């Protein structure tokens, strides 16, 4: 079974039509194990809030999406267990601690962090961390 750590840039595509929506949906295959740090829900709901403030969605849709994401069979992990490694990665790579938390979790699980954050992916694709990182379009 493949182990994927999914960041909010990918999961938001499960609910809103955006670039990479179709391929992001492939992750919902029940043969995959999907993992997230606790931070995930905060980041996900923050994106929903932004969409609501911009008038892209109404209150009913935002409530629905927030409820639905909590029904997805995600394996939740305590941020504290991977925080120190994330801190090391963030300092080494000059990337945000938030993004590195997902990468740290992927490393601890010997899985792959799936992201649709092109800036983050591009900044690490030539690093040793690429073996734990997967661009959303490369899901198979």
Helices and strands, with pairings:
Blueprint: E1 2-6, H1 8-11, H2 21-25, E2 32-37, H3 39-53, H4 59-69, E3 74-77, H5 80-93, H6 97-109, E4 112-115, H7 118-124, E5 133-135
Parallel strand pairs: 1-2, 1-4, 2-3, 4-5
Helix pairs in contact: 3-4, 5-6
Number of helices: 7
Largest pleated sheet: 5 strands, parallel
Average of per-residue pLDDT values: 96
CATH A-level architecture: 3-Layer(aba) Sandwich
Shape: globular
Number of individual domains: 1
Question: Order of strands across the biggest sheet?
Answer: 3-2-1-4-5
| Overall strand count | 5
CATH fold call: Rossmann fold
Query: For the record, what is the CATH homologous superfamily label?
Result: 5'-nuclease
Task: Give the terminus-to-terminus CA distance.
Answer: 13 Å
How large is the radius of gyration? Answer: 15 Å
What is the N-to-C order of secondary-structure elements (H for helix, E for strand)?
Answer: EHHEHHEHHEHE
Low-confidence residue ranges? none
CATH class: Alpha Beta
């Amino acid at each position: 079974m493949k182990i994927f750590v999914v960041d909010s840039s990918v999961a938001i595509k499960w609910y809103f039509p955006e670039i990479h929506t179709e391929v992001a949906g492939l992750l919902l295959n029940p043969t995959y194990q999907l993992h997230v740090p606790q931070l995930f829900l905060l980041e996900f709901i923050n994106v929903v809030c932004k969409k609501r403030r911009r008038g892209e969605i109404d209150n009913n849709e935002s409530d629905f999406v927030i409820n639905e994401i909590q029904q997805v069979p995600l394996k939740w992990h305590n941020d504290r267990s991977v925080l120190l490694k994330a801190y090391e990665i963030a300092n080494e790579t000059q990337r945000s601690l938030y993004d590195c938390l997902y990468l740290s979790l992927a490393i601890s699980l010997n899985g792959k962090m799936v992201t649709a954050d092109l800036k983050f992916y591009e900044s690490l694709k030539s690093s040793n961390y690429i073996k734990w990182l997967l661009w959303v379009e490369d899901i198979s």
